[in-house]
Design goal:
By secondary structure, the protein is α/β, with parallel strands linked by helices. It has 13 helices and 17 strands. Helix 10 runs parallel beside helix 11. The longest helix has 16 residues. It is elongated and about 80 Å long. Bound molecules: S-adenosylmethionine.
Length: 470
Amino acid sequence: MNYTIIRLTKLEELPKAFECGLIQLYQSVFSEPPYQEYFSDDEISEIFTSYISILGVVLLLAFLDNEVIGFCSAVRFVTKCFDDFELIDKKDTFSSTYLQKSFRLNPEHTWYLDELGVRQDQRGKGLAKHLVKTCLDTLVSTDKNATINILLNTAEENLVAQSLYQKLGFHFVEGEAVNVSQMRQDGNVQKDRRIFMLRIINKEGEIMTMAENKKNYTTEWQLATYLEVEWSDFLFGNTLSDSHEKLLNPRTDRIYPNFYRRIGELAQEWLQKNHSLPVKYLDVGGSTGRTLYEIYNSFPSLAELVLVEPSPKFCKWAQQILIDSEELGYFPIVGNCDKPSYGKAVNRPDPIRLKELYIYEAFAESVPRPANYFDLITCLNVADHHPNPKTLVQTLYDLLSPNGYLIFASPMDFNEIYTPDKERWVSNLNILFPNELWKSIGDNDVFYDFRPHCRKWIRFSSQVVAKQKR
Ligand SMILES: C[S@@+](CC[C@H](N)C(=O)[O-])C[C@H]1O[C@@H](n2cnc3c(N)ncnc32)[C@H](O)[C@@H]1O
């Protein structure tokens, strides 16, 4: 198709676009199901005029033979008025504060993909995709922020649009939806339910899958598997109660936290060899806290413990288990297929009585401590859940004090969902640690057992390396 995509930046360019059919195209695109919305000529003219007047908008039009056949626009989140967006529970308004609180996105770094439309006779030829891709490329090249979030919403039933956005690297934002009121073709104002999709792009233009990955660790199902692998010795007690035993059918042995105990032993062995007495310790991607618990019990010298974990659900359990002293109550137990069961915790570990124990819902990239701070960092089985293992190691290097220790592990079970660029997959962790920056202290394989389903046991072999910052 011989079309051209043009970015409009000046008000003077609008009349030509209107002459070339932009208004009619806009009307016809939105009059179609599922939206069936009505817009007058004046409203559309106002919409596009306000686009051009808003600082930093990206407005793209596709022209074919002097006719507009497609449009796409993105606006800075903070300049868009979301008055028509009604949150389902109506407890809040859709605003910058809400974006920060619920989406955990910085509104200053967030763009809203506002409009996308292609003339009916030009569909199915890749123009919509081309328009969105051009829009994303424009955002990457013009927005100076290190990370750019692109948010959009679409009708729940608009599967064609959703599939297109997925192909362009957008992911669904779970648990968020709004009702949007619009005038329909029949003159009535009606609400339709819209869901959100998000793509995060970092400065290099690489897809930042991290925020999306976090979603995988917020399901009850994942929580059940991690609570079992990390805390089954306490939660299930020494003997299984009748109800737990039924849940663990078939009555094979359950998973024990052997991996974490072994990490504690190895860390002790490796650091003692070097006569190291760490004081400040960080666990990155610490899930529900077992690694931190084992390391704390292995090093009486520790005075400050920090756990960072992006999953709010994991953080909540880490807090309950490591810090709070209340009984743990009911917890999810690995069940059938995707549905966990629930059981009451038989026991709990003693809470850690250390004033300087902090749990942050954060990524490795946003640990709230200065550079060169920690004497010891553990980062276990996170590398293969990270878009860029190399930069993860660099981030940890920066956080470590000179001569500080890093214990880093991974089963190298890479997956395109987490690490889309296959070039970044590694099969030996040592590749990530250049000799000029790191001294090797230890290298072991440790089994890591996991029970994702009540009849399925998985055993990984995790390579565990210990490195010292030079
Ligand atoms: C496979 S789990 C490993 C959990 C625990 N460290 C262990 O060894 O059992 C991966 C963990 O990494 C966390 N994670 C993913 N990306 C992260 C990042 N950029 N920074 C910190 N943690 C991250 C996930 O939320 C999840 O809890």
